[in-house]
Amino acid sequence: MTSLIDEATITRNIIEKAAKDWIDLSEVDVVIVGAGPSGLAAAYYLAKAGLKTVVFERKLSFGGGIGGGGMLFHKLVVQSPADSILREIGCKLEKVEEGLFVADTSAMIAKLANSAIDAGAKIILGVTVDDVIYRGGEKPQIVGVVVQWTAVIMAGIHVDPLGVKAKAVIDCTGHDAEVLSVVSRKIPELNLFIQGEKSMWTTEAEKLTVENTGEVCPGLYAAGMAVAALHNTPRMGPIFGGMLLSGKKVAELLIEKLKGKTV
Ligand code: 48H
């Protein structure tokens, strides 16, 4: 079979479509930083509610800590009521005892990402959020993020980044709470101190992570392990119910705020 596909056509289409997306994404309802379990769950519910949602993920893959399972074993544990989220998106679960389920790590990554994308969220890989955009004097408000190609950061070359405006930014960057850490360092008026998480205590960690999920300062929200880092609460180990419920909770808060309706 002869092919008449022209190299220049491939180049032109990639750049044209990517540029169109970036122009569209320069102003969104919600920016989610990090495509781990909390970020993908939040993206699914936000996009499903019709909010213009973009996820920036530093790596060229999604899933965050899901892929590592427990010490690289390809299974993870989810407890009730978070199993209902995985059922909703068609992820297979095996019941091991009352209220406790096991899933394959690859299945959970694929189903979460697929449902977020199908709901209308954009997931942009290979982009790192390394700062925020803010306004205001004594009571600053976060109004967007500063983005850079991860490859540029890794190369250590001086390239000025771009800004993306958003009504809300969610830090879903996991243990390091990267967005909150930048804000704590660069906007001291907000009095944010990121102490990091405490040692392992699963039940308490799961409860507190979900309870403390929410707005950190005007325009900035936290979900997932970033919440534990902010509130200095325990880690939970490879159980992912709290991450999913935290992502869903932050989405519900924002849907109510930005659309005035519940999930
Ligand atoms: C763009 C970034 C940036 C950045 C990081 O670590 P994650 O899986 O985060 P969560 O909070 O959704 O889930 C935590 C869970 O995986 C976990 O680690 C648990 C339950 N641990 C318990 C324990 O005891 O250890 O995903 C964060 C994602 C990753 O994909 C990063 O690459 C990405 O965010 N990321 N993306 N810009 N500045 N920083």
Q: What sequence of helices (H) and strands (E) makes up the elements?
A: HEHEEHEEHEEEHEHEHEEHEH
Unique ligands: ligand 48H
Strand residue percentage: 25-35%
> Uncertain runs with pLDDT below 50, 5 residues or more?
none
N-end to C-end Cα span: 51 Å
Brief write-up:
This protein has about 260 residues and is of the alpha/beta class.
Overall description:
40% of the residues lie in helices and 27% in strands. It has helices at residues 7-25, 37-48, 83-88, 105-119, 150-155, 178-186, 202-212, 225-231, 241-259; strands at 27-33, 53-57, 75-79, 94-97, 100-104, 122-125, 127-135, 141-149, 162-171, 198-200, 214-217, 220-222, 234-235. Helix 7 runs parallel beside helix 9. With 263 residues, the chain is an alpha/beta fold. The longest helix is centred in the first third of the chain and has 19 residues, at 7-25. The termini are far apart. Ligand 48H binds next to helix 2, strand 2, strand 7 and helix 8.
Considering the chains and any ligands shown, give keywords for the structure.
three-stranded antiparallel sheet, alpha/beta, eight-stranded mixed sheet, binds ligand 48H, 9 helices, 263 residues
Write the layout of secondary structure elements.
Blueprint: H1 7-25, E1 27-33, H2 37-48, E2 53-57, E3 75-79, H3 83-88, E4 94-97, E5 100-104, H4 105-119, E6 122-125, E7 127-135, E8 141-149, H5 150-155, E9 162-171, H6 178-186, E10 198-200, H7 202-212, E11 214-217, E12 220-222, H8 225-231, E13 234-235, H9 241-259
Parallel strand pairs: 1-2, 1-9, 2-6, 9-12, 10-13
Antiparallel strand pairs: 3-5, 4-5, 7-8, 8-9, 11-12
Helix pairs in contact: 2-4, 2-9, 7-8, 7-9
This protein binds ligand 48H.
